[in-house]
Amino acid sequence: MTWFNKVQNPKLKSVKKVATNTPTGLWKKCTNCNEIVQSDRLEESVQVCPYCDHHFRLDAVSRISHLLDEGTFVSLGDKLTTTDPLNFTDKKPYSDRLQEAYDKTGLVDGTFCGLGKINGKEVAITVMNFQFMGGSMGVVTGEKVAMAMDEAYKRKIPCIVISCSGGARMQEGILSLMQMGKTSAARQRLKNAGIPYISVLTDPTTGGVAASFAMLGDVNIAEPKALIGFAGPRVIEQSIRQKLPDGFQRSEFLLEHGFVDRIVHRHKLKSELSFFIEMFGNESKSK
Q1: Residue 117's beta-bridge partner residues?
Q2: Residue 207, CA atoms < 13 Å, CB-side half-sphere
Q3: From residue 134, how far is each of 83, 113, 138, 204, 246 by CA, in Å?
Q4: CA–CA separation, 227 and 167 (whole Å)
Q5: End-to-end CA distance of the chain
Q6: CA distance linking residue 131 with residue 10, whole number of Å
Q7: What is the pTM of this model?
Q8: pLDDT of 90-121, one tens digit each?
Q9: How much is the CA Rg of the chain, to the nearest whole Å?
Q10: FRET label pair with 180: which of 5, 30, 92, 168, CA 20 to 30 Å apart?
């Protein structure tokens, strides 16, 4: 079926939706350049638009598969599940929201934690998953971030945390906010021991996650055009009643103002992480 690979991507106009037997999910519209891209082609490019390099959000399983050497990931904390400690209800009970997230993703929690290898070098890693309640940080996410850091401390190996989050999970109240202090303390222990911690910030990295472990890396690496900050641009504009600069809170703006160290394309992220792991390893040997 080589002819299928030669099919040009159509430019679609807005049309009235009609009933059809055509399978869904074959195409995806880029939110940046508006090109229509084959879903298979996006998967091959790790969810990066082949026309404009726009980085779509990547689920945690795909990111682990992309970054770690094949077959090396060993999951930790699988039995940790989110509960409803405050019996919280807004428009609907928190327990219902959790059930919806379970049904949508098939996961009991949105954050993955474990051990693996990058180009043969062992690392402890945590990856957040935006598909599970916007990647929000609750008690379980905080525990898994701290768990990866603790494993890195015990094994004397680098720790990598990949953030993709709308911030602390309001449905868990102060218990969620406490994770900012917990993860920051675990990170400080790594720093005191001279163990490398690399933070990768993807779109979005905001709220309590940005205000704690996400910005505390020995190296802070961002993906292109990722939204990074505490409050969102619209909230800030409404608060200060001023128009924000173009590109405010995007990776490129933060790099220019010294808040992140590097912007790395997704296709080059594994080699970049490998470089820093090697560099920190050589640095520790020389001491």
Answers
A1: 122
A2: 19
A3: 17, 17, 11, 9, 25
A4: 12
A5: 58
A6: 28
A7: 0.89
A8: 999 999 999 999 999 999 888 999 999 999 99
A9: 20
A10: 92
